[in-house]
From TrEMBL:
Keywords: Isomerase, RNA-binding
Protein name: Pseudouridine synthase
Family from the record: Belongs to the pseudouridine synthase RsuA family.
Species annotation: Streptococcus acidominimus
Gene Ontology biological process: enzyme-directed rRNA pseudouridine synthesis
Protein origin, superkingdom: Bacteria
One Pfam entry name: PseudoU_synth_2
Entry's Gene Ontology molecular function annotations: RNA binding; rRNA pseudouridine synthase activity
């Protein structure tokens, strides 16, 4: 790997910024000052340091984002703000992307990473990775609706796999419900369409969990953080390098 690429991925700054650092003589390779950005290093064996502080190499990075409404789950878009625009420059330099998509008006848990193999495993229909949503609904969700979800709701273009619907709260006066829905699929507008098939309407939708990852309630909307060591351990169960 080129030295300047390593320094960028280590979070020291942009290509332009790290080249300035190199020229200033603040970077050493195996305790020898190195000023050339083109120098090739072994990122796993060579000791790279900046101002005496040894840098570690991260092949993959993982961010847990509390996605707000009005932002799309994409890496670029000409009309809407994307989730990548919520990250700082250092995080964006890792070339991360969202694992799966949340509708523009849906908020909640979104994983961003540069680990394509892991993303494939999480999104693969064969893996049946559970996704849990919490929804505010216009209308009263009933026991009959719970049974319909469990049996597999039939939509116009496909029949949903059996899903869990839990009615958390009902407001008879306002004729509204608060529910939790667990599905193992992730088709376009699926949760909203399943509720609509029961004659009600989702007015607010939040993804609370995906596989082993659970939304951090301390994260404000639009905020993100790196995964903890424990969360990374849970991702290792997918059988790919983490």
């Amino acid at each position: 790997m080129r030295l300047d690429k390593f320094l960028v991925e280590a979070g020291l700054g942009s290509r332009t910024e790290v080249k300035k650092m190199l020229k200033s003589g603040k970077v050493t390779v195996n305790q020898v000052v190195e000023k050339s950005a083109k120098t090739h290093i072994d990122e796993r064996k060579d000791q790279i340091a900046y101002q005496g502080e040894v840098l570690s190499y991260e092949k993959f990075v993982y961010y847990l984002l509390n996605k707000p409404k009005g932002v799309i789950s994409a890496t670029e878009d000409s009309k809407h703000r994307t989730v990548l625009e919520l990250l700082d420059e250092t995080a964006r330099q890792k070339e991360v992307f969202p694992v799966g998509r949340l509708d523009i008006d849906t908020h909640g848990l979104l994983l961003l990473t540069n680990n394509g193999a892991l993303a494939h495993e999480i999104l693969s229909p064969k893996k049946h990775v559970d996704k849990v949503y919490r929804a505010e609904v216009a209308g009263i969700m009933t026991r009959e609706d719970v049974s319909r979800f469990a049996s597999g709701i039939e939509l116009k273009d496909f029949t949903c796999q059996p899903a869990d619907l839990e009615v958390l709260e009902v407001n008879e006066t306002a004729q509204t419900s608060r529910v939790q829905i667990r599905i193992a699929e992730g088709k376009f507008h699926q949760v909203k369409r399943m509720v609509a098939a029961c004659g009600k309407q989702v007015t607010d939708l939040q993804r609370f969990s995906m596989g082993p990852l659970v939304l951090d309630t301390d994260l404000a909307l639009g905020a993100y953080r790196r995964l903890t060591a424990h969360e990374l351990e849970t991702l290792a169960t997918f059988g790919v390098e983490v």
